[in-house]
Protein backbone atom coordinates (compact mmCIF):
# COMPACT_ATOMS: atom_id res chain seq x y z
CA UNK A 1 0.00 0.00 0.00
CA UNK A 2 2.82 2.42 0.85
CA UNK A 3 4.75 1.71 -2.38
CA UNK A 4 2.36 0.48 -5.09
CA UNK A 5 4.97 0.92 -7.85
CA UNK A 6 7.45 -1.31 -6.04
CA UNK A 7 4.75 -3.90 -5.38
CA UNK A 8 3.73 -3.97 -9.04
CA UNK A 9 7.35 -4.35 -10.15
CA UNK A 10 7.88 -7.30 -7.80
CA UNK A 11 4.71 -9.00 -8.99
CA UNK A 12 5.85 -8.68 -12.61
CA UNK A 13 9.18 -10.35 -11.75
CA UNK A 14 7.36 -13.09 -9.88
CA UNK A 15 5.18 -13.81 -12.89
CA UNK A 16 8.26 -13.99 -15.12
CA UNK A 17 9.79 -16.63 -12.83
CA UNK A 18 6.57 -18.64 -12.88
CA UNK A 19 6.68 -18.76 -16.69
CA UNK A 20 10.14 -20.33 -16.66
CA UNK A 21 10.34 -24.14 -16.92
CA UNK A 22 11.24 -26.24 -13.87
CA UNK A 23 14.94 -25.99 -13.07
CA UNK A 24 15.51 -22.96 -15.32
CA UNK A 25 18.43 -20.73 -14.36
CA UNK A 26 21.31 -18.85 -15.90
CA UNK A 27 23.60 -20.96 -13.76
CA UNK A 28 25.92 -22.01 -16.59
CA UNK A 29 26.47 -18.39 -17.64
CA UNK A 30 27.00 -17.37 -14.02
CA UNK A 31 29.59 -20.14 -13.57
CA UNK A 32 31.60 -18.86 -16.53
CA UNK A 33 31.70 -15.39 -15.00
CA UNK A 34 32.89 -16.52 -11.57
CA UNK A 35 35.79 -14.63 -10.02
CA UNK A 36 39.14 -16.35 -10.66
CA UNK A 37 39.69 -16.60 -6.90
CA UNK A 38 36.71 -18.90 -6.67
CA UNK A 39 37.99 -21.32 -9.31
CA UNK A 40 38.17 -24.89 -8.03
CA UNK A 41 41.34 -26.65 -6.96
CA UNK A 42 40.98 -29.24 -9.73
CA UNK A 43 40.60 -26.99 -12.77
CA UNK A 44 42.93 -28.78 -15.20
CA UNK A 45 44.15 -32.35 -15.35
CA UNK A 46 47.74 -31.09 -15.22
CA UNK A 47 47.02 -29.66 -11.77
CA UNK A 48 46.54 -33.27 -10.58
CA UNK A 49 48.63 -35.45 -12.88
CA UNK A 50 51.68 -34.92 -15.04
CA UNK A 51 49.84 -35.81 -18.23
CA UNK A 52 52.92 -36.37 -20.40
CA UNK A 53 54.40 -38.78 -17.86
CA UNK A 54 51.25 -40.87 -17.41
CA UNK A 55 50.89 -41.23 -21.18
CA UNK A 56 53.69 -43.79 -20.93
CA UNK A 57 51.51 -45.94 -18.67
CA UNK A 58 48.64 -48.26 -19.54
CA UNK A 59 45.00 -47.38 -18.93
CA UNK A 60 44.89 -49.85 -16.03
CA UNK A 61 47.98 -48.28 -14.42
CA UNK A 62 46.51 -44.78 -14.77
CA UNK A 63 43.27 -46.03 -13.24
CA UNK A 64 45.17 -47.42 -10.25
CA UNK A 65 47.11 -44.17 -9.81
CA UNK A 66 43.90 -42.11 -10.00
CA UNK A 67 42.01 -44.31 -7.54
CA UNK A 68 44.93 -44.50 -5.12
CA UNK A 69 45.40 -40.71 -5.18
CA UNK A 70 41.77 -39.94 -4.35
CA UNK A 71 41.00 -42.90 -2.08
CA UNK A 72 42.40 -41.02 0.92
CA UNK A 73 40.49 -37.84 0.09
CA UNK A 74 36.93 -36.86 1.01
CA UNK A 75 35.61 -36.53 -2.51
CA UNK A 76 33.97 -38.30 -5.45
CA UNK A 77 36.09 -39.73 -8.27
CA UNK A 78 35.85 -42.25 -11.10
CA UNK A 79 37.49 -43.60 -14.23
CA UNK A 80 34.86 -43.73 -16.99
CA UNK A 81 35.26 -45.96 -20.09
CA UNK A 82 35.53 -43.87 -23.27
CA UNK A 83 32.48 -45.47 -24.90
CA UNK A 84 30.27 -44.70 -21.91
CA UNK A 85 31.50 -41.11 -21.74
CA UNK A 86 30.91 -40.70 -25.49
CA UNK A 87 27.26 -41.60 -25.01
CA UNK A 88 26.94 -39.43 -21.89
CA UNK A 89 28.62 -36.44 -23.55
CA UNK A 90 26.59 -36.72 -26.76
CA UNK A 91 23.38 -36.64 -24.76
CA UNK A 92 24.62 -33.81 -22.53
CA UNK A 93 24.97 -31.63 -25.65
CA UNK A 94 21.31 -32.17 -26.50
CA UNK A 95 20.04 -32.08 -22.91
CA UNK A 96 22.35 -29.91 -20.76
CA UNK A 97 20.29 -30.02 -17.57
CA UNK A 98 18.31 -32.47 -15.49
CA UNK A 99 16.57 -32.82 -12.14
CA UNK A 100 18.05 -35.34 -9.69
CA UNK A 101 16.50 -36.66 -6.47
CA UNK A 102 18.54 -37.16 -3.32
CA UNK A 103 16.95 -39.29 -0.58
CA UNK A 104 16.74 -37.54 2.78
CA UNK A 105 15.53 -38.80 6.17
CA UNK A 106 12.02 -37.92 5.10
CA UNK A 107 11.24 -37.62 1.40
CA UNK A 108 13.63 -36.34 -1.26
CA UNK A 109 15.58 -33.18 -2.02
CA UNK A 110 15.83 -32.17 -5.68
CA UNK A 111 18.99 -30.91 -7.37
CA UNK A 112 19.37 -29.39 -10.82
CA UNK A 113 22.46 -30.59 -12.68
CA UNK A 114 23.66 -28.11 -15.33
CA UNK A 115 26.49 -28.88 -17.78
CA UNK A 116 29.03 -26.14 -18.48
CA UNK A 117 31.60 -27.59 -20.84
CA UNK A 118 32.79 -30.85 -19.26
CA UNK A 119 31.88 -29.59 -15.79
CA UNK A 120 28.57 -30.65 -14.27
CA UNK A 121 27.25 -28.29 -11.60
CA UNK A 122 24.63 -29.37 -9.06
CA UNK A 123 22.52 -26.86 -7.15
CA UNK A 124 19.52 -27.58 -4.95
CA UNK A 125 16.25 -26.73 -6.68
CA UNK A 126 15.04 -24.70 -3.71
CA UNK A 127 18.13 -22.47 -3.92
CA UNK A 128 17.62 -21.91 -7.65
CA UNK A 129 14.00 -20.99 -7.05
CA UNK A 130 14.92 -18.52 -4.30
CA UNK A 131 18.29 -17.17 -5.52
CA UNK A 132 18.07 -17.60 -9.29
CA UNK A 133 21.30 -17.22 -11.25
CA UNK A 134 23.31 -16.40 -8.10
CA UNK A 135 22.56 -19.77 -6.50
CA UNK A 136 25.92 -21.42 -5.68
CA UNK A 137 26.91 -24.89 -6.85
CA UNK A 138 26.88 -27.47 -4.07
CA UNK A 139 28.72 -30.08 -6.15
CA UNK A 140 30.81 -29.88 -9.32
CA UNK A 141 31.92 -32.93 -11.29
CA UNK A 142 35.02 -32.40 -13.42
CA UNK A 143 35.51 -34.69 -16.43
CA UNK A 144 38.94 -34.86 -18.09
CA UNK A 145 38.85 -36.33 -21.63
CA UNK A 146 42.55 -35.67 -22.37
CA UNK A 147 43.36 -39.39 -22.32
CA UNK A 148 40.15 -40.57 -23.94
CA UNK A 149 41.44 -41.27 -27.47
CA UNK A 150 44.84 -42.63 -26.51
CA UNK A 151 43.94 -44.63 -23.40
CA UNK A 152 40.20 -45.17 -23.72
CA UNK A 153 39.37 -43.61 -20.35
CA UNK A 154 37.97 -40.33 -19.02
CA UNK A 155 39.02 -39.26 -15.53
CA UNK A 156 36.55 -37.63 -13.16
CA UNK A 157 36.74 -35.99 -9.78
CA UNK A 158 34.66 -33.48 -7.86
CA UNK A 159 34.51 -30.52 -5.56
CA UNK A 160 31.64 -30.24 -3.09
CA UNK A 161 30.27 -28.01 -0.39
CA UNK A 162 30.89 -30.15 2.70
CA UNK A 163 28.46 -28.01 4.70
CA UNK A 164 25.67 -29.08 2.37
CA UNK A 165 26.63 -32.58 1.18
CA UNK A 166 28.67 -35.49 2.47
CA UNK A 167 30.64 -37.80 0.19
CA UNK A 168 28.09 -40.63 -0.07
CA UNK A 169 25.35 -38.11 -0.97
CA UNK A 170 27.59 -36.55 -3.65
CA UNK A 171 28.38 -40.07 -4.91
CA UNK A 172 24.65 -40.78 -5.23
CA UNK A 173 24.21 -37.70 -7.44
CA UNK A 174 27.26 -38.65 -9.53
CA UNK A 175 25.94 -42.19 -10.01
CA UNK A 176 22.62 -40.81 -11.18
CA UNK A 177 24.37 -39.01 -14.06
CA UNK A 178 25.32 -42.37 -15.53
CA UNK A 179 21.94 -43.82 -14.60
CA UNK A 180 20.05 -41.21 -16.65
CA UNK A 181 22.57 -40.12 -19.32
CA UNK A 182 24.50 -43.32 -20.07
CA UNK A 183 21.64 -45.80 -19.84
CA UNK A 184 20.68 -48.25 -22.59
CA UNK A 185 17.08 -48.06 -21.39
CA UNK A 186 15.24 -45.61 -23.64
CA UNK A 187 12.49 -44.97 -21.08
CA UNK A 188 15.06 -43.74 -18.56
CA UNK A 189 16.83 -41.32 -20.90
CA UNK A 190 13.46 -40.11 -22.15
CA UNK A 191 12.97 -38.42 -18.75
CA UNK A 192 16.03 -36.28 -19.51
CA UNK A 193 14.63 -35.35 -22.92
CA UNK A 194 11.26 -34.46 -21.44
CA UNK A 195 12.86 -32.25 -18.78
CA UNK A 196 14.84 -30.33 -21.42
CA UNK A 197 12.37 -30.15 -24.30
CA UNK A 198 8.87 -30.80 -22.95
CA UNK A 199 9.02 -29.41 -19.43
CA UNK A 200 5.24 -29.23 -19.10
CA UNK A 201 5.13 -33.05 -19.33
CA UNK A 202 7.85 -33.63 -16.73
CA UNK A 203 6.88 -35.45 -13.52
CA UNK A 204 9.05 -35.38 -10.39
CA UNK A 205 7.79 -38.79 -9.33
CA UNK A 206 9.21 -40.39 -12.48
CA UNK A 207 12.73 -39.52 -11.33
CA UNK A 208 12.06 -40.92 -7.86
CA UNK A 209 10.64 -44.13 -9.37
CA UNK A 210 13.78 -44.65 -11.51
CA UNK A 211 16.04 -43.94 -8.55
CA UNK A 212 14.21 -46.39 -6.29
CA UNK A 213 14.20 -49.04 -9.00
CA UNK A 214 17.97 -48.67 -9.48
CA UNK A 215 18.66 -48.93 -5.73
CA UNK A 216 21.23 -46.12 -5.89
CA UNK A 217 19.81 -44.16 -2.97
CA UNK A 218 18.98 -47.14 -0.76
CA UNK A 219 21.90 -46.64 1.61
CA UNK A 220 21.26 -42.93 2.18
CA UNK A 221 18.05 -43.18 4.17
CA UNK A 222 18.47 -44.28 7.81
CA UNK A 223 16.93 -47.65 8.61
CA UNK A 224 13.84 -47.80 10.77
CA UNK A 225 15.81 -49.60 13.48
CA UNK A 226 18.62 -47.02 13.65
CA UNK A 227 17.03 -45.23 16.61
CA UNK A 228 16.80 -48.44 18.62
CA UNK A 229 20.51 -49.20 18.60
What percentage of amino acids are in beta strands? 15-25%
Q: Return Rg in Å.
A: 20 Å
Helical/strand content category:
alpha+beta
By DSSP (H or I, 4+ residues per run), the number of helices equals 10
**Average pLDDT value?**
83
Low-confidence runs of at least 5 consecutive residues? 17-40, 224-229
User: In percent, how helical is the residue content?
Assistant: 40-55%
Descriptive report:
The chain has 229 residues and is of the alpha+beta class. The N and C termini lie far apart (56 Å). The protein has one domain. It has a six-stranded antiparallel beta sheet, sandwiched between helices. The protein has ten helices and six strands. The chain is globular, with a radius of gyration of 20 Å.
Which helices and strands, and how do they pair?
Layout: H1 4-19, H2 27-32, H3 51-54, H4 59-71, E1 77-81, H5 82-94, E2 97-103, E3 108-116, E4 119-124, H6 125-131, E5 139-144, H7 148-151, E6 153-160, H8 167-181, H9 186-197, H10 204-214
Antiparallel strand pairs: 1-6, 2-3, 3-4, 4-5, 5-6
Which descriptors apply to this entry?
single chain; 229 residues; alpha+beta; 6-stranded antiparallel sheet; 10 helices; 6 strands; 44% helix
What is the structure about, briefly put?
The chain has one domain (20-217). The chain contains 10 helices and 6 strands.
Amino acid sequence: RSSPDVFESRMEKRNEVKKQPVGYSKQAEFIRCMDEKARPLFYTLDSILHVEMVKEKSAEEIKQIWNQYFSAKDTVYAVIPAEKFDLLWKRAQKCPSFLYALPRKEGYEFFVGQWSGTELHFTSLINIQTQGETAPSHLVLYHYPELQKEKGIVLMTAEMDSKFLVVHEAQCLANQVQLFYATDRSETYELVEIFNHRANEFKYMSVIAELEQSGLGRGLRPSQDSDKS
